[in-house]
Amino acid sequence: MPVDLSNFSQKELHEWINKFDTILCDCDGVLWSYNTPFPGASETVNTFINLGKRVYLVTNHSHILREEMLAKCHKLGFNVKLEDLVTSSYVTAHYLKQIGFNKKAYVIGSKELGKELDEVGIEHIGIGQDNLDCDIVQYVMKKYELDENVGAVIVSFDANFSYIKLCKAVNYLKDKNNLFIATNGDRYFDFPKWNFLLPETGCLINAIECGSSRLATIISKPSTYLCNVLAENSPPINPKKALVIGDSLRTDIVFGNNAGYETLLVGTGVNELKDVEEIIEKIKSGDDSQETKKLLPNFYIPSLNDFHKKLME
Ligand SMILES: [Mg+2]
C-alpha cells in the first residue's frame, strides 16, 4: 500500500518534503474542480514555492492557453508564473519543434492548440468546423482531397469533431511516414456539479485508431516527452528529487513511474485508495505486468487540505 502521509507527524512531513526539489502537480481533481479551488490547495502549492521548490502545474487539458491558465491560477490564489504552467497542447507543439518536424500538420483539435503550433512555427490545417454538406458518395467522388504537404495527424480535444474529420485523419494516416500523435489520451472530463461526463481526446483517438489500424503516440502524461520539453528552459530534472502529485492513476501516477519520480495520489479526483487496493489485489493474484505495477503510487493523502493542515499543526 502507498504510505499514507496523514499518519506522518508534522516533522516527518517537513523532512519528507525536503527530499524533493521539483514538484509536478496535476490540476483538475488535485487543485481544483473546474473553476472551484479545493481548500488548502493554493496554500500547499504556495508553501512549496516559498520553500524554493521548482513547481510545475501540469495539465492534460489541451484547450486552454497557458496565459488563460495563469489568469485562473492567480484568481484562485496560486502564486505561479507562466513558465510554471504546462498544458498538453504546449508540450505537443514543443515536442514537434524538438524533433524538427517541418511539414504541415492536420489537426483535430482546438484553436488553443493551433495557437501553440503557431508559436513554434508549425503550419497546420483542420481546426474549426468541417461537416458533410452533400451525400457521402458525392463527397468521396468529387470533393475529397488531401493536402500532400501534411506530415502528421495531431489529435486533441475537438468539440467540432465530425465524420469528415475522421475520414481525413484516417486517409492521411494511410501514408505510414505521416506521424500519428495525440496531445493526451484522457477518456472523459467529469463535471460532477452538472452530473455530466464530457468525452475527451481518448474517444477521438480510438475512432481514428480503429479506422487507420494505427496506434497514436500520446505526448502528454503518462508519456515522459514533457520532461524533455521542460528541459528546454530549465536544468534537467533529477528523478531522485522529483515528486508527481495527481488524482489519476492512469495518467499522473503512471507518468511519475515512467519518469522514475516519486508519486503522491490525492483522493479528491478520479481515483481513491480503494482503486489502489484493487490493483494490489490484482498483483497478489498473479498479475505481475509492468503495466499494472506502474499504476501504484508511493504515497497517498486524502486531500491537499489534509496535507496543508498537517504542515500547519
Ligand atoms: Mg486530474
UniProtKB/TrEMBL annotation:
<dbReference type="GO" id="GO:0016791">
    <property type="term" value="F:phosphatase activity"/>
</dbReference>
<dbReference type="Pfam" id="PF13242">
    <property type="entry name" value="Hydrolase_like"/>
</dbReference>
<protein>
    <recommendedName>
        <fullName>4-nitrophenylphosphatase</fullName>
    </recommendedName>
</protein>
<feature type="binding site">
    <location>
        <position position="28"/>
    </location>
    <ligand>
        <name>Mg(2+)</name>
    </ligand>
</feature>
<dbReference type="InterPro" id="IPR036412">
    <property type="entry name" value="HAD-like_sf"/>
</dbReference>
<feature type="binding site">
    <location>
        <position position="247"/>
    </location>
    <ligand>
        <name>Mg(2+)</name>
    </ligand>
</feature>
<feature type="binding site">
    <location>
        <position position="221"/>
    </location>
    <ligand>
        <name>substrate</name>
    </ligand>
</feature>
<keyword id="KW-0479">Metal-binding</keyword>
<dbReference type="GO" id="GO:0005737">
    <property type="term" value="C:cytoplasm"/>
</dbReference>
<dbReference type="GO" id="GO:0046872">
    <property type="term" value="F:metal ion binding"/>
</dbReference>
<dbReference type="InterPro" id="IPR006357">
    <property type="entry name" value="HAD-SF_hydro_IIA"/>
</dbReference>
<dbReference type="InterPro" id="IPR006349">
    <property type="entry name" value="PGP_euk"/>
</dbReference>
<feature type="binding site">
    <location>
        <position position="26"/>
    </location>
    <ligand>
        <name>Mg(2+)</name>
    </ligand>
</feature>
<dbReference type="InterPro" id="IPR023214">
    <property type="entry name" value="HAD_sf"/>
</dbReference>
<comment type="similarity">
    <text>Belongs to the HAD-like hydrolase superfamily.</text>
</comment>
<keyword id="KW-0460">Magnesium</keyword>
<feature type="active site" description="Nucleophile">
    <location>
        <position position="26"/>
    </location>
</feature>
<feature type="active site" description="Proton donor">
    <location>
        <position position="28"/>
    </location>
</feature>
<keyword id="KW-0378">Hydrolase</keyword>
<dbReference type="Pfam" id="PF13344">
    <property type="entry name" value="Hydrolase_6"/>
</dbReference>
